[in-house]
Design brief:
Elements: H1 7-14, H2 20-31, E1 60-62, E2 84-90, E3 99-107, E4 110-111, E5 117-122, E6 128-130, E7 143-147, E8 150-156, E9 162-168, E10 176-181, E11 188-191, H3 197-203, E12 209-214, E13 218-219, H4 227-230, E14 235-236, E15 244-248, H5 249-258, E16 275-278, E17 288-293, E18 296-306, H6 325-331, E19 342-350, E20 358-360, E21 365-370
Parallel strand pairs: 6-10, 15-16
Antiparallel strand pairs: 1-3, 2-3, 2-16, 3-4, 3-20, 5-6, 5-12, 7-8, 8-9, 10-11, 11-12, 13-14, 15-19, 17-18, 17-21, 18-19
Amino acid sequence: MDDLDNPAALLLAILPHIYKDYLIILIVSALAGLTVTRLLPVFPWKQPSSSSSSSSSSSFSVATKSNLDDEFTYSTTGGDGPCRIKALYIYPIKSCGGISLSSASVVSTGLKHDREFTFAELHSDGGWMFITQRKHPLLTRVQTSIVADKLVVSFPTSWWGRNEFSVSLQHEESEELLPVTVWNDSPDAWKLPIDLWRLRRFLGVKGELALFRVCEKREVFRCAPRKETLGWQPVMGFADSFPLSIMNISSVRDLNARIVNKIPQLSVLRFRPNIILEGLPAFSEDAWKRFYIGHNEFFAACRSTRCKLPNVNQITGEKHPQEPDQTMRKYRKIDAGAKNNACLGMQVVPARHGDGVSMSVGDEVVVTETGEHFFIE
């Protein structure tokens, strides 16, 4: 029989580099009528960890390669040297792939272009609800890059291909202003006029899927420095709770050492931080209150309480059934205000933003105040 008449034999012939076990999954699933793209995350292929995109804007600089490429091989000083920024990340679309930066400007909502967009699902009551990796872990396979004044979005469509579309970084007249629910808020946001049926199928979203751009900023009150202190009320775009988040890579390594038999390499990116620090002892950031990056001051408003989102592998989209959530809950319930939640990392508010307020990889971080924290639910 000619191989062309035997699809299974043809696949074995043209894809010899793919593990045979995965081919068996593909063949059985195809016979069962499953959507091929829904199986893509089982393959141990690594997607780019950062974008090589460029921007005409002077407000940030995209790294030519991720500053975390050596995350599991380099030796952090762990407290013997100055604390510095190891890496900077923005996530233009909430819960989707991030972009590694070499420098970034600080705006009122955090790093420029961070969480500026979100995907949302139309519910039966006619309202739009944001979606995240908590329910749709394959969002991590949606990659973003910034080219000139465009946000480029791509996601898998086949074993070898990706679908791509781009949107302007600036609001356009064709966008419709509608409320979108983000946790307990329903800010007005701009709905972009693009058809996302392929992405909806890939993610497994049941209702209509749309992309929204920030319009109305959400004010931050709990745990945040007061308006009288800052001179302005802290705000955010589509971030969960604060404009900025920081993680100490030594703290993540301490956690990883406790679960290395289950997750050999736990990336700090599972916690989706903006600012990743090196040169600190593990968990020393727990007591930070105020610190400087260069000449610019920042408030460590509270500890980051953790849900199960870090269980999602940020390369494959696979969700571990227990870790690291289970182990964090055993030894990181450290905040009296959040007795049922593990804490790792800090939530941050800039003391200033706008012209002249920026940061770069390698910048030294100087802590000026420490103290107790009490998380407010």
